């Protein structure tokens, strides 16, 4: 049984937990204390507001434990704000958070809340079917080191990528009916 924690400081937590509940061998749980983070096999950092999540990470003194577990190989997936939290560089913000993934992101890259949109793609590496994508004040990746594997671009911008044990998506698979990205991440957890 693999225990996947969803960082439960702010944002779309229960939606990820519901999706993970579809897989055998996966035990999802919300985590927000150090001892809970130490006890999981993998972690999802959900969408929400990266400034708020980043502030709570430092207020609750969680950055150190999460960062060291990621650097030791724990699988992690950042969706939307979670992507911003993982990035080493943020082009339009002087704040930095976990700084573990060799990507440079543009926060709110698609504009304001009103510019949120959905689309769908085919991406055979993730799923045989069409994958719906929901973008809500989403960031995108403007620069990635060669260690980063680009999984998906939309109009030049990288919106899904992976670096070893780290996965980042600009969009919110937990807000759709589709399980492909959760299945892919469960696969990363062994
Ligand atoms: N715009 C938000 C941020 O940068 C992310 C939005 C989201 O997670 N849906 O924090």
SSE blueprint:
Blueprint lengths: L1 E6 L5 H8 L5 E6 L2 H5 L3 E4 L4 H10 L3 H9 L4 E4 L1 H6 E4 L10 E6 L10 E6 L7 E6 L4 E5 L4 E6 L2 E7 L2 E4 L10 H9 L2
Parallel strand pairs: 1-2, 1-3, 3-4, 4-12, 5-6
Antiparallel strand pairs: 6-9, 7-8, 10-11, 11-12
The structure holds glutamine (GLN).
Nutshell version of this structure?
The chain is α/β, with parallel strands linked by helices. It has one domain (2-188): Class I glutamine amidotransferase (GATase) domain (Rossmann fold, 3-Layer(aba) Sandwich), CATH 3.40.50. The protein is built from six helices and twelve strands.
What do these coordinates show?
The chain is an alpha/beta fold and 190 residues long. It has a single domain (2-188), classed as Class I glutamine amidotransferase (GATase) domain (Rossmann fold), CATH 3.40.50.880. 25% of the residues lie in helices and 34% in strands. It has six helices and twelve strands. The strands form three sheets. A seven-stranded mixed β-sheet has the order 2-1-3-4-12-11-10. It has a three-stranded mixed β-sheet with strand order 5-6-9. The longest helix has 10 residues, at 50-59. The radius of gyration is 15 Å and the shape is globular. The model has no long low-confidence stretch (mean pLDDT 96). The protein binds glutamine.
